[in-house]
Specification:
Blueprint (H helix, E strand, L loop, with lengths): L12 E6 L5 E6 L3 E8 L4 E8 H10 L2 H7 L7 H15 L1
Antiparallel strand pairs: 1-2, 3-4
């Protein structure tokens, strides 16, 4: 399982750990991933996703999972999220 947010595409970053003596060693900055179940109002069911805490705040700010998916760019979404977005669009139109 990759360490990547399914909604925002945020992943692992790399950088340096710098000591007081300015010695530099490589380190990894991991995203704060959470396993959450979000409710889709349009589909009427819950969806399990692995998203970062920042994405969870954004979903709540935009008014739910459906609104977030409809406003999001397709290049940032995972395959599961793209399929979910297509379902929401189809259900939203009809």
């Amino acid at each position: 399982m990759s360490r990547r947010c399914e909604l925002t595409g945020k992943g692992v970053l790399v950088g340096n750990k710098v000591s007081h003596a300015l010695n530099r060693t490589r380190r990894r900055f991991l995203p704060n991933l959470l396993n959450v179940s979000l409710m889709s109002d349009t589909l009427g069911r819950t969806v399990k996703l692995r998203i970062c805490a920042n994405a969870l705040r954004t979903v709540e700010h935009r008014g739910g999972l459906d609104a977030f998916l409809l406003k999001s760019v397709d290049s940032e979404l995972s395959d599961r999220a793209l399929a979910l977005k297509a379902e929401v669009k189809a259900a939203h139109v009809s």
